[in-house]
Amino acid sequence: MKTTTRSELLALIYRFYPRGVHNFDRMYVPPGEPFYDDTEEHRRLVEASNRGRAEYPTWKAMIRRLGDRYSLQNESLHLFSGGPDPAYSARIWLTKQTALSFHVSLLGPYYGIHLPGLAEEEPVAREVAREIEATYPGYHKIPPELGNEVVPDVAAGVVGFGEATIDVCLFSEVWTWVRPV
Fold this sequence. Notes:
single chain; 13% strand; 6 helices; five-stranded mixed beta sheet; alpha+beta
């Protein structure tokens, strides 16, 4: 199993998120200042999202297989609104109010499983990991201790500077939608 390092993840993130440039939709940008949508990093993120839209049938087939076994909600349909998104996302409902979420990055060969903290989550998480690794050969799970690290000089989606974690940058703010119990 490949060991993923913080340096590798940060290098990947910096390819798709400009350092120190806001990405808020209606922010005033003074003349001469860099604007997020005009950066090479943002263009790469848009290209990755476009690839994600083109390769969506692979994701759809995988979540259909998982959906045959679990109560599943696809969180990736917003990709078709045309905006940039760094990952496919879905959740499996473990109870009526608690879900495990999982994400496959469009930026690099990584995936994440966000566990809510219930006893029954482990067998489901193992099955999801097997399905992801079979569908996306060469993809690796980001260890939680790395995913939770803040990337101090980027903003991702609605998550601002000093708050965006590696997980949020690689899997979008959808990562934050599942909270541990």
